[in-house]
Amino acid sequence: MKNGPKPIAMYRNTLEKKAEEVRRSMSAQKAAQVVARLDIPSDEGDLSQQHHEEWIFLNRNSLDMKLLREISDSLLRIDNGTYGICMECEEPISAKRLDAVPWTKFCIRCQEAADRHEFETESLEELLANAA
Ligand SMILES: [Zn+2]
Model's pTM, two decimal places? Predict the structure, then answer.
């Protein structure tokens, strides 16, 4: 059964590892520093550059937060038996897609529709692509 669906336990394992990895990569300390610094006026010259860096940092951090949320949502869906089912059209999501993006909640067709903003959702993949 080379191309058959993987046992759900494998996805759970992958998701838990990924969550751990994201948590480790997020620097809570650095986030606190940046937020504290936002209140302190600095020299005009550096200001826009500094704001730009802060924006990038905060943006990345919120991407990590979002990814963590998607992962924990996926783990919940594993628990309640809806994992691997598209939340928009309720069709099974392909194993290939789950292997690539195990925290996805949409099949490729609905994801593409979401990316074209045909229905209301935030696309993590799109955000990650824009941040790269
Ligand atoms: Zn779908």
Answer: 0.67
